[in-house]
Write a structure and sequence with these properties.
Layout: H1 11-32, H2 35-45, H3 50-70, H4 74-94, H5 99-119
Helix pairs in contact: 1-3, 2-3, 3-4, 4-5
C-alpha cells in the first residue's frame, strides 16, 4: 500500500521535507553524541527517568530525521514525531512558557510532521 506513495507531491513537498529532516538530524545529533548529558538534560527538565526518555528521543530525531530527508517511511516516522512534539508542547504549556521563545518551534515541528503524515513527503531524493 505504501510502496510508492513517497513520490506524491513533487518538489513542493520534497524541499520542505528535506529541510524538516535536516533540522531533526541536527537536533538529534546533539542528543546522540553525548547520551549521558542528554539523559541528565531530560532528568533536569522533569522527564524521569531521563535515561529512558533521552534514549528514545535521541535516535528517533537523528535516525528518523535521516529517514525523513530520504523520504522513507514518512507516515510512520511522522506519527512518532507528532507524538514526541505534542508531549513537548503540552509540557511547555503546563510550565507556562510563552509562545514566542517558548514552544513555537515545537508547535511548528508538530505541524510539519502532521502535514507530512497526511500528505507524505514529495519526491524521493537521494
Amino acid at each position: 500500500m505504501h510502496t510508492l506513495l513517497f513520490w506524491y507531491g513533487g518538489p513542493g513537498f520534497a524541499i520542505p521535507r528535506i529541510i524538516f529532516g535536516a533540522l531533526l538530524v541536527a537536533h538529534g545529533w546533539l542528543k546522540v553524541k553525548d547520551l549521558r548529558q542528554n539523559a541528565a538534560n531530560f532528568s533536569g527538565m522533569g522527564f524521569k527517568p531521563g535515561w529512558l526518555w533521552g534514549t528514545i528521543a535521541a535516535p528517533l530525531e537523528f535516525l528518523g530525521g535521516i529517514g525523513v530527508v530520504l523520504g522513507l517511511w514518512m507516515p510512520y516516522l511522522c506519527a512518532l514525531f507528532m507524538g514526541e512534539f505534542i508531549v513537548i508542547v503540552v509540557w511547555k504549556w503546563f510550565k507556562k512558557m510563552p509562545f514566542v521563545s517558548g514552544w513555537e518551534m515545537d508547535a511548528l515541528i508538530f505541524a510539519f510532521a502532521l502535514i507530512f503524515f497526511t500528505l507524505y513527503g514529495g519526491w524521493f531524493i537521494v
